[in-house]
Each structure stands twice: as C-alpha cells, then as structure tokens.
Design brief:
Layout: H1 3-43, H2 48-57, H3 87-96, H4 103-126
C-alpha cells in the first residue's frame, strides 16, 4: 500500500469516527431534551408542557457527577458509576412509577437513565 493510499484510508477512518461521535452527541442530547417532550405530549397531553418541564428538571440527577474524580471523563459510563445512576437508584425510580403524584418525575428519571445507558452502548461500540 502506498503512502497516499494509507493516508487516504486513515483520513477516511478518522472522518467516520468523527461523524459517529457527532451522531452520538446529537442522539444523546436529543434524547435528554426533545424525547421527554415527545413522551410528555403523548402520555401527559393535558399537562404536557408542565410534564416536559418536570422531566427536564430531573436532569438535576447529574449533580452526582460533581462527586466524581475526575469530574468529567468522556470514557466513563454514568450507569453504575455515579450514586444517582446506580442500579439501586434506578430500582427506586422504577418503584416511583407506582405513585401517581411522582409518576412524571419517575418517567423523567428513567428516560434520563435510558439515555445515559444508550450512551454507554455507543462508547463500547466505538471502542
């Protein structure tokens, strides 16, 4: 393989990795911000704006990232690492679905965990 072919192949691979990384970021933030709005509109139609706002507020669960060292690690999966992203916490969020007054909060928290989980899948896939 010539040097030009090799450099073209490397450029092609790095471009593909960049596009996949960009897609991961777009999917991640769309699921954090837009998907809860769709869920609110589909399942809480009479109060969808309020439900969407509550679900967006559940992103405060990411405050547990402040306890980590280093604070941000792009290679770290949140699920199972941070306290509010742990499996016992997710079990509690699932139980909260049974309490009507907390159902929207529970849906927001579970959507957040699902979004972070799919992000972990992307990270493992892109390795």
């Amino acid at each position: 393989m010539s040097f030009l072919n090799l450099s073209a192949a490397i450029y092609s691979i790095s471009t593909a990795v960049f596009l996949l990384s960009l897609t991961q970021t777009v999917v991640h933030y769309s699921l954090h911000f837009l998907f809860p709005g769709l869920v609110a509109w589909l399942f809480f139609r009479r109060q969808w704006k309020r439900a969407w706002l509550i679900m967006l507020t559940t992103m405060l669960v990411d405050m547990d990232h402040l306890l980590a060292t280093p604070l941000f690690d792009p290679e770290r999966c949140s699920i199972g690492f941070h306290p509010l992203h742990s499996y016992p916490a997710i079990a509690v969020y699932t139980i909260l679905l049974l309490i009507p007054r907390l159902r929207i909060v529970a849906v927001g928290l579970l959507l957040h965990m699902l979004t972070d989980f799919q992000d972990c899948c992307w990270m493992n896939w892109l390795k």
